[in-house]
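queue> pop job 88
queue> type: inverse folding (structure -> sequence)
queue> payload:
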């Protein structure tokens, strides 16, 4: 699925009434769930990770961050990191539990211990099955806030993060990424009755919510510096730990708009039919699996898994979780390695 295709499929998504299955109360309830959860039991720390459009700011030595991952076919894919995971017997993965259709707990489940599900979660299960083997309890989930994704990897609390995490140059200095498995773009979300029309002068004097440590904040900061975003738009002090918190603030009238990845904005619109997407995406955001720098064998192994997953598993997962709202997809983003 390329960025142009996604932009077209996202138009009008906020009005899809059939997807509006989660009310504001459910969103607030989701925030009350424990921050650290697993599929089975919690695991101990690792032994041992007008509408304007402007691309992300890219340094001269990092022109295409989504093309900086290691090739799956070269080097040892069964090195020390992978072997340590196999010996342990399960994979530890940082995920989200509040991103509808990507990583979330079904609020309509009759179970008191509903399992995580979604597009990102399907990918986690595939990676765990391929590295550890298809067996019960082969993955432990750790729900982490947006601003704790990088620290969780660096502090070796998780083997990897699969959490709608954009590959960018700054993060490449902190963690390693797989090749991209999804592409979207930053977009504005606001109440349907609002006069906001996108990233333009309609945001003057508006309160904009973003998640701490997100590429949305960086995109707004860059837009304000180059004049694309009006100077009176207020976003610097309106950050929250988790992206879903922004939807709650919007519902409570504590924010006028939200800026986040278009796919996540659309999932929030599905949770609340009173809000919708405004304007078109104004960046390109490639999601990747984040891992510890230096764990080259794990990066290469994950990239090989993604090669096979893109052939069949990716489309099945997309059709199950995202197609009803995003529309037909032309497939995962194209891949190039270093």
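queue> result:
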């Amino acid at each position: 699925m390329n960025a142009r295709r996604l932009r077209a499929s996202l138009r009008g998504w906020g009005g899809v009434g059939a997807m509006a299955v989660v009310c504001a109360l459910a969103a607030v309830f989701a925030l009350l769930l424990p921050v650290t959860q697993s599929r089975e039991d919690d695991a101990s720390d690792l032994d041992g990770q007008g509408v304007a459009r402007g691309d992300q700011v890219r340094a001269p030595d990092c022109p295409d961050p989504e093309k900086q991952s290691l090739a799956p076919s070269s080097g040892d894919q069964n090195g020390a990191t992978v072997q340590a995971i196999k010996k342990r017997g399960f994979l530890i993965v940082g995920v989200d539990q509040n991103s509808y259709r990507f990583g979330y707990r079904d609020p309509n489940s009759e179970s008191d211990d509903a399992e995580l599900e979604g597009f990102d979660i399907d990918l986690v299960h595939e990676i765990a099955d391929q590295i550890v083997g298809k067996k019960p309890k082969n993955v432990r989930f750790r729900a982490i806030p947006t601003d704790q994704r990088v620290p969780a990897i660096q502090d070796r609390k998780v083997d990897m993060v699969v959490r709608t995490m954009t590959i960018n140059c700054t993060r490449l200095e902190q963690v390693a990424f797989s090749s991209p498995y999804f592409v979207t773009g930053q977009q504005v979300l606001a109440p349907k009755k609002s006069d906001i029309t996108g990233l333009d002068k309609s945001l003057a004097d508006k309160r904009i919510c973003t998640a701490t440590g997100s590429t949305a904040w960086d995109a707004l900061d860059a837009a304000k510096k180059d004049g694309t975003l009006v100077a009176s738009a207020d976003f610097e002090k309106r950050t929250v730990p988790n992206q879903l918190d922004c939807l709650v603030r919007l519902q409570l009238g504590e924010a006028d708009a939200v800026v986040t990845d278009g796919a996540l904005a659309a999932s929030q619109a599905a949770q609340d039919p009173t809000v919708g997407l405004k304007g078109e995406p104004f960046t390109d955001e490639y999601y990747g699996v984040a891992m510890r720098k230096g764990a080259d064998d794990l990066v290469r192994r994950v990239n090989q898994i993604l090669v096979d997953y893109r052939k069949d598993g990716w489309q099945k997962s997309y059709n199950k979780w995202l197609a009803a709202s995003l529309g037909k997809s032309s497939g995962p983003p194209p891949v190039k390695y270093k």
